Amino acid sequence: MAVMMPLIFIFLFGYAVNTDVENIDMAVLDMDKSMESRELVKKFEASNYFVPSVYVKNTGEIERLIDTGKVKCAIIIPSGFSKTVNGFGDSSVQLIIDGVDPTIARTALQSGFLLSKNYSLERLPQLQSSQLNTGEPGLDVRTKVWYNPNLESTKFTIPGLIGLIMQNITVILTAFSLVREKERGTIELLMVTPIKPAELIVGKMVPYILIGTLDFLIALFFGTYWFDVPIAGNTMLLIILGVIFVICSLSIGILISTIAQTQAQAMQMAFLFLLPSILLSGFIFPRESMPFPIMVAGYFIPLTYFLKILRGIILKGSDFTILANEVYILLAFGIALLAVASISFKKRLD
């Protein structure tokens, strides 16, 4: 581990640490359906900053797609757009941006404005006879940032910190629970008892579930109250889902504890998991900017899904129907990890 960990981390972090955002998923509402509107969409696509992945029929679909995180921005092209760009009529294009992640939002805001401006300059001969709201010929682009209009980084980092702190605390708490018994020699006493491995695992976790839940409530209260990040959604739903994440993280720690033979080994294994999760989960760096294999690795980290839940409920006010996929995946992770831990401990009892 001493030789391989630096090598693994330099390649892993070298690809994951990237603030250059590209390929931002974008929804398109084209109410003009003209050659000019299709040309504008192609300009966005050719820039490599935007990927027009979904074409919608109304603004309600845009709201649902942004709430679920399937797109990060949307462009609304009004009817009469072709007349405007040819110098007849007056209409404006609207660019809606998800402001939860300020890094992605700033890139979308700046790139979208520049692309629209360049498009209008190409159309300048046709637009010279048309004066828009600015008093200058050009394409009028109206931008609107949702959920974090001022692009405050605090509103992005505080929910992420709550999830990260809870993961680190809970994993470390249980990573030493069984391995401590092995080092002290008291594991033999458990071996001769009639309790099953699964019952022993659950029994070891119950106190830590209570401690982890209390820690989560403390982090949630001070994170939202002290740093002025109000919870836009259902607080009770957030607490329930937080308990599910606590159980899932504790399961990771208990699995480490069944595999490790010493507390030093358990500590190394815990950090081997915790360090990559900081980057691959989307806590700091946008997952959209990561290479595909690195992004896929993040799907195997429960924190990735809990960060979506935290930011969804706290910033967007998302309900269970929007977060259902993340909740089911967390439940599946928890059950699978507990099952593997029980099997691993049973093998060592044999």
Automatic annotation (TrEMBL):
It holds the Pfam family ABC2_membrane_3. GO terms for molecular function: ABC-type transporter activity. It is a multi-pass membrane protein. The chain crosses the membrane at residues 156-179, 200-223, 235-257, 269-286, 292-310, 322-345. InterPro entries: ABC-2_transporter_component, ABC2_TM, ABC2_TM_bact-type. Belongs to the ABC-2 integral membrane protein family. Residues 93-348 form the ABC transmembrane type-2 domain. The lineage of its organism: Bacteria, Bacillati, Bacillota, Clostridia, Peptostreptococcales. Its main location: membrane. GO terms for cellular component: plasma membrane. Gene3D superfamilies: abc type-2 transporter like domain. It is found in: Cell membrane. Keywords: Cell membrane, Membrane, Transmembrane, Transmembrane helix, Transport. This is ABC-type multidrug transport system, permease component YbhS. It comes from the Bacteria.
